[in-house]
Design brief:
By secondary structure, the protein is α/β, with parallel strands linked by helices. The chain is globular. Helices cover 50% and strands 11% of the residues. The two termini are 37 Å apart. The structure holds zinc ion (ZN). Zinc ion (ZN) binds next to helix 6 and helix 10.
């Protein structure tokens, strides 16, 4: 291993963080276009305030809501809607699903052809030839960090898999992270999205592609998620919501510029085959992936120092050992009553199919240690 440090770091052009920052969306939008396609999740009434302020700024808007995690046809329908209404700007306000849908629509509406021309794995994977429409991402959950990533995850029900539309041009022009938008989030969604955020800090920090900038982001945010996730679920206040919003943002910045690991390697095929929310799947897998990764590192005589540091960041105890960190995560997952994977209809008979697909997932390749089929089966069995 050489001692050279090399990395690339890219993110949204502007990031606005803080309670009340939603107010800056419409004035910024007015400098970028005249007619906004506003992409939301199923609760489109949440966009009311934004729609009013767009109107005040003299912009036209067309609302387009996407129920659940977006499919390729959802992206196509949104693209047609944007073209028909001659929208020249896309704003997504919602959870990771709405943001990924908006990101895909912004890219597809300015590029010719079909989504499959550009999709990885199941499509031709062609690069985009045109810049996407200007895109503003405004998350209303604290979980995915999709407001600062360059890919949109789309499900293909036909292929029973989730794939990415990915290009550096797809990085949002503006990411507005306003913790106020998460104040009313119910406890169960706070828990699963928050555990996704925590996973998206632990996996980049322990993965093979970690770099000094992503490390700094993870070191800052893991303790925030650790102190505030359970409180944000049980007894939320502005401080815990702010911590989780920042943890989610840092997780997105970290994963987009380093990598992930086996939790996300599994989450892609599981989310493609079963109706299971991404955050809930990650939450169910996280402690078991950590467990088996740690064993595999020891077996292969690889360094455990990242797991030691993770344990110290999580527990606040400067003498904690890797097992303490795993135990801390297990206790949290139990306290937040995260159901196992069998809750989504997954059973042992599905393991070979899931494992075969997980092996080809890009996240699996950055896992800190390579895992064989027996170890991968062990993770699924423990997470069931
Ligand atoms: Zn995730």
């Amino acid at each position: 291993m050489s001692g050279r440090t090399e990395f690339e770091f890219a993110t949204a052009t502007r990031i606005l963080f803080g309670a009340g920052k939603l107010a800056e969306a419409a004035p910024a939008a007015a400098t970028m276009g005249k007619h906004a396609l506003v992409v939301t999740g199923s609760a489109s009434d949440r966009a009311q305030k934004l729609l009013e302020s767009l109107k005040q700024e003299g912009l036209k808007s067309t609302i387009h809501s996407v129920a659940g995690e977006p499919t390729i046809s959802d992206a196509q329908a949104g693209t047609e809607c944007a073209r028909k209404n001659e929208c020249d700007l896309v704003i997504a306000l919602g959870g990771g699903s709405a943001i990924d849908a908006g990101k895909a629509i912004a890219a597809l509406c300015s590029n010719p052809g079909q989504p499959l021309d550009y999709l990885e794995v199941i499509g031709n994977g062609q690069p985009l030839t045109q810049s996407p429409a200007p895109f503003i991402a405004i998350p209303t959950t604290a979980g995915t960090g999709a407001e600062v990533t360059r890919n949109a995850v789309l499900a293909s029900p036909e292929h029973r898999v989730k794939v990415s539309l990915r290009h550096s041009l797809m990085l949002p022009k503006i990411a507005i992270v306003d913790p106020e938008l998460t104040y009313e989030l119910p406890a169960d969604i706070t828990a699963t999205t928050g555990l996704d955020a925590l996973t998206q800090l632990i996996e980049p920090f322990t993965c093979t592609r970690a770099n000094p900038m992503t490390d700094a982001l993870c070191r800052e945010a893991i303790p925030r998620a650790a102190r505030s996730l359970q409180r944000a679920c049980e007894n939320p206040n502005p401080a815990t919501r702010e911590d989780m919003a920042l943890a989610s943002l840092h997780g997105g910045l970290a994963l987009a510029n380093s990598g992930l690991g086996a939790v996300h390697g599994f989450a892609a095929p599981i989310g493609g085959i079963f109706e299971a929310p991404h955050g809930a799947v990650c939450a169910a897998l996280l402690p078991h992936v950590m467990d088996i990764n740690l064993n595999a590192l020891a077996e292969q005589n690889l360094k455990e120092d990242r797991y030691t540091e993770t344990a110290r960041l999580l527990t606040g105890n400067s003498h904690a050992c890797p097992q303490d960190g795993i135990q801390w995560v297990k206790t949290l997952v139990a306290a937040l009553k995260i159901p196992g994977l069998s809750n989504y209809g997954i059973s042992k008979g599905d393991f070979p199919d899931i494992i075969e697909k997980a092996r080809t997932a890009s996240s699996m390749k950055a896992n800190p240690v390579s895992l064989d089929d027996a170890q991968l089966t062990g993770i699924l069995q423990a997470a069931l």
